[in-house]
Amino acid sequence: MIPTLDHTHDASATCWVESARRPDTEFPVQNLPLGVVREGDGPATIAVPIGDRALLLPRVSGHGDLATLPAEIREALAAPTLNGLMALGPDAARALRRAVFGALVDAGLESKLAPGLVPLAAVAPVLPALIGDYTDFYASVHHATNVGSMFRPDNPLLPNYKWVPIGYHGRASSVVVSGTSVRRPRGQTKDDQKPAPTVGPSRGLDYECEVGIWVGTGNPLGEPIPIERAAGHFFGLSLLNDWSARDLQRWEYQPLGPFLSKSFATTVSPWIVTTDALAPFRAPAATRPEGDPAPLPYLTAAEDQSAGGIALDLEVALSSSRMRTAGMPAVSLSRSSFASLYWTVAQLITHHASNGCNLAPGDLLGSGTVSGPTRDSRGCLLELTWRGSEPLDLPTGETRRFLEDGDEVILRGRCRRDGFVSIGFGECRGVVIPA
Amino acid sequence: MIPTLDHTHDASATCWVESARRPDTEFPVQNLPLGVVREGDGPATIAVPIGDRALLLPRVSGHGDLATLPAEIREALAAPTLNGLMALGPDAARALRRAVFGALVDAGLESKLAPGLVPLAAVAPVLPALIGDYTDFYASVHHATNVGSMFRPDNPLLPNYKWVPIGYHGRASSVVVSGTSVRRPRGQTKDDQKPAPTVGPSRGLDYECEVGIWVGTGNPLGEPIPIERAAGHFFGLSLLNDWSARDLQRWEYQPLGPFLSKSFATTVSPWIVTTDALAPFRAPAATRPEGDPAPLPYLTAAEDQSAGGIALDLEVALSSSRMRTAGMPAVSLSRSSFASLYWTVAQLITHHASNGCNLAPGDLLGSGTVSGPTRDSRGCLLELTWRGSEPLDLPTGETRRFLEDGDEVILRGRCRRDGFVSIGFGECRGVVIPA
Fold it and tell me: How far is CA B261 from the centre of its chain?
């Protein structure tokens, strides 16, 4: 069942952490995403960002309602990853949210929780979970149409697109957390005019603005997940940059799909915004254009059609090293909406498991590049510069067809709805370093 | 460096386990593959098959040269997977091999090792390693040409094939060990004559006869593996059945490659035959047909060209439930050779890491279907029955275009060379159960 509203979404709730009450904070008490951080060389510790602080959960689990959580939840909080908590299912995540919320609005607990509250700037994020498998979908029909137009002008959208939530297996080992530098990959590329490929640093390095969907409880091998139950396997969302080397991709991808053009790095933002935090921002599944087929029955559920979408606004920003040297802020390249995707999260989960494939706690599903129908909503440079033919101008006078060494890509995400406190995702950052 | 011959390959060595001296054994003392087994509900235990016995290594690590192995190796042997041993690198694996060999040829140790020696029939294999990522290659040019001929008659082998070791990311979670039943997957299929796809059990279920390449030591993200050093990252081989639903594959695979048509199950044989055991069976890299390009420099090393191949003979056998009921043995469907592949193991490893992708101990690389140039060397039913148009006859009078419920697929592998004791891989088995 898709989570519904409760007292933890109440806009009038007041947190005793002052910075969490600022109107521009990404992390008000109504958010409470989960992640894992380190202080210096200390152990990886499960934490919740609140305002400009991080609440280190193992340090405060003896206080307030945290102290009365079931032992299995308290044990899971002592682990260096969220996998254990994810495996416990939605009720456990909800109980934890309510306990943390309760502690952070109870001013009487401030002195007790203080030792667990450290500046966000003083901790470094690590990957929130051990990712067993990473899958990348292709759920934006605008992205698929744009990319298809460049590579197959006569046939941009393949006949399966509107029936099958297209996806492919990605590389789990090279998923890194925000802030990790991304080395420009080397590889084979082939000029159409030349008889043989050459090997060297990619000259078509790109980002892809995506949303990462984290799996909570898994399913046994051989047992599909009916769409009515998919919400129970959905733990939360983060931002995801699926770095792509377009020149490698173009030469390697037939007939088995992208491989080395993607597997050199995928960046995720540190915090997983849980399905409970997303409750106020649920929206109907995106309306399909007239004439498009309805989803097949195994991908259709009334609840999912009415509330399977998520109103999450995304933004991509870029800063070159010259811009940073000159003290210029990053420049916004595009804005798009997760709610515009052709498939809902539940449809992606159910399709993935429909052949009996077993999903596991901590598995990561990328949404695919989130692009909208307009130029300023294109979620990667391949689309924005139309394969390099329409370069972007930067405020320094530089131009960009694809990413240059020193470029930093920053993804941001926000959920907004009238009557509710807006919540943010934190940034998903990465700087390109030379091959 | 590719392992060379030493005393552990000596054909005159005599093991005190009688069944290991039988000429038809797969597991003579010159083999000593590694795996993980359970006795009943007991713990997962690292073991070596010898004749018709399994030597449970943690139980005997206090005897003979095993007792003087470095502490890190002895600790790794106490684990429930081989990942720890794999991470220690080729010298550790070789030291372990020599110690086990020494103990099994020293008749004076028989009584001391007896408590660790149990019938193979009394233990059940489990997966030998925790597989972080599974990658599937496409390294048989005969398979690629056959499949391409069916789907793209005018253009069977794509222009990249002879330059790029084509591969794709597979699903790690659904890799299962030999003996695990495989549930027929359901999914979308589309009849060319109909306007919409339908959903149901696959009617094109197939096996693929492959070899599984296990990664030993890994490489850090961003640091490629030069081909001269690839052998140091190659731990060993097992057999691998990449079960495939051809009807799902045909509809879903464009443009991002196979997904649900493969991710329902991949079966590996229990034992990893180590690179040291394979030393006598090394062969030159397969000769490329005249006119084919030489591998690019990053995929070329003198040692790999002269000894990068492995003379491993493969066989696929099938038994239907009617055949088993009638007491008939499985029928052989094809035989092919791992040495015929277009790319060597080192080339696959080096290409995989050439963009900086990090491989890790326990990662699994499938070779792709190993087919030869002749009809009786085609490694899957898609090729053998030419997409169902040339059905196979079984001794019961049944015919097969694709697999039926109850069918058992058995892969077998053997290395042979004059003057050396032949070694076997053990079977890779799986029975198809209904959707």
Answer: 20
Q: Which of A142, A143, A233, A351 is catalytic?
A: A143
Q: Chain B contacts of A183, Cβ < 8 Å?
A: 221-222, 356
pLDDT tens for B214-257 read 999 999 999 999 999 999 999 999 999 999 999 999 999 999 99
Contacts of A430 (CB under 8 A, 6+ apart): A176, A178, A179, A180, A181, A182, A207, A241, A243, A265, A267, A408, A409
Q: How far apart are CA B77 and CA B69, in angstroms?
A: 11
> Which one of A355, A364, A433 would you mutate to disrupt binding with B, by most B Cβ within 10 Å of its Cβ?
A355
Minimal-distance CA residue of chain B relative to A145:
B255
Residue in B151, B186, B251 nearest the CB of A160: B251
Cβ neighbours of residue B38 closer than 8 Å, sequence gap 6 or more: B44, B45, B123, B124, B126
- ipTM of the predicted assembly exceeds 0.90: yes
Give the containing element (helix H, strand E) for A93. Answer: helix A90-105
Nearest to B267 by CA among B324, B209, B347: B209
User: CB distance A163–B196 less than 8 Å?
Assistant: yes
B172 DSSP 8-state letter? S
What does the pLDDT look like over B66-100, one tens digit per residue? 999 999 999 999 999 999 999 999 999 999 999 99
Own/partner pairs, B196-202, CB within 8 angstroms, 24+ separation: B196/A163, B196/A293, B197/A160, B197/A163, B197/A164, B197/A296, B197/B251, B199/A296, B199/A297, B199/A298, B200/B435, B201/B434, B201/B435, B202/B245, B202/B246, B202/B247, B202/B248, B202/B435
Q: What is the pLDDT of residue B78?
A: 97
The residues, ordered by sequence, that sit 6+ positions from A228 with a Cβ below 8 Å of its Cβ are A301, A303
Specify whether the CB–CB gap between A53 and A118 falls below 8 A.
yes
The token duo for B401 is: 């275009």
Chain B residues close to A264, C-beta within 8 Å: 221-222, 355-357
Residue B165: HSE in the Cβ half-sphere, 13 Å Cα cutoff: 28
| Integer Cα distance of A243 and A267 in angstroms | 8
